[in-house]
Amino acid sequence: MKKKRIAVLISGSGSNLQALIDACATADYPAQIVLVLANKADAYGLTRAQTAGLKTHVISHKDFATREAFDAAMDAVLCANEVEMICLAGFMRVLSPWFVEQWRGKMINIHPSLLPKYKGLHTHQRAIDAGDSEAGCSVHWVSAGVDEGEIIAQARVPILAGDTAETLAARVLVEEHKTYPAALKKILSEQ
Ligand code: GRF
Fold first, then answer.
1. pLDDT tens-digit series, residues 142-184
2. pLDDT the model gives residue 9
3. Residues 85, 6: contact at Cβ < 8 Å?
4. C-beta of 136 in contact with ligand 1 (< 6 A)
5. Whole-number mean pLDDT of the chain?
6. For residue 176, what pLDDT is reported?
7. Is the CB of 15 inside a 6 Å radius of any atom of ligand 1?
8. Helix count (H) and strand count (E) of the chain?
9. What is the CA radius of gyration of the chain?
10. Probe ligand 1: pick from 16, 87, 157, max atoms within 8 Å of CB?
11. Upstream peptide bond of 158 is cis (omega within 30 degrees of 0)
12. Full-model pTM
């Protein structure tokens, strides 16, 4: 089996990156992580990647005058590493239409809500404030609108009495770590 060459883009903790690292280490998983790219040099996910022996690269968005220039720099590094698919995993930058088009059909994201509900930030607090009985996560294709692409997989958790955004986020995150590797495997096995 030829494993798909994956880049994981992160900005922070990288617990979803860790879930993908662990999945890639299992037998018969159809992907290998060839690059972990961060826009923040202090992203803890970089430490996770280095511990796993993965190649890392930092491109700070602050070094670029425009979103397009930052995206072009990322694209160059991704292409130089012969990346075939991108997994966004807590990557906190909005991507330019050019970059999204460049990677159309080759870029997926995980979002901590049951899309189409609660695109954007503060998803858990918004779900609690709305009185929802359940929350969850979605893995979706990345398209031009933020958090709007076709859904690949979702997982649900209950919202419990007394939940805060933090307790709910922790419950959702457990599901994220199962859902992301499973969704990636699903789309690769269908290709
Ligand atoms: C996750 O909740 C993910 O769904 C969202 O940002 C968070 C990233 O967490 N996009 P981590 O960096 O993977 O730990």
1. 998 888 999 999 999 999 999 999 999 999 999 999 999 999 9
2. 98
3. yes
4. no
5. 97
6. 98
7. yes
8. 6, 7
9. 16
10. 16
11. no
12. 0.97
Q: Which of 111, 124, 140, 177 is catalytic?
A: 111
Q: How far apart are CA 78 and CA 72, in angstroms?
A: 10
**Pocket of ligand 1 contains residue 13 by CB under 6 Å:** yes
- 111 counts as catalytic: yes
- How high is the pLDDT of residue 18? 98
> Is-contact 127 118, C-beta < 8 A?
yes
- What single letter denotes the amino acid at residue 68? E
State the amino acid at position 117 in one-letter form. Answer: K
Residue found under tokens 């609690």: 128
How far apart, in Å, are the Cα atoms of 8 and each of 65, 103, 107, 110, 189?
24, 13, 10, 11, 19
Q: Check residue 66 and give left, alpha or beta (phi > 0: left; psi -120 to 50: alpha).
A: beta
d(CA 115, CA 189): 24
Characterize the bridge pairing of strands 134-141 and 151-158: antiparallel
Distance (Å, whole) CA 127 – CA 1: 42
Those residues of the chain that have pLDDT short of 70 are: none
Pick from 120, 139, 136: nearest CA to 169: 136
pLDDT number for residue 146:
85
- Ligand 1: distance of its center to the CA of 155 in Å? 14
C-alpha dihedral over 124, 129, 130, 132, to 10 degrees? 60
Q: Which two tokens stand for residue 5?
A: 């060459």
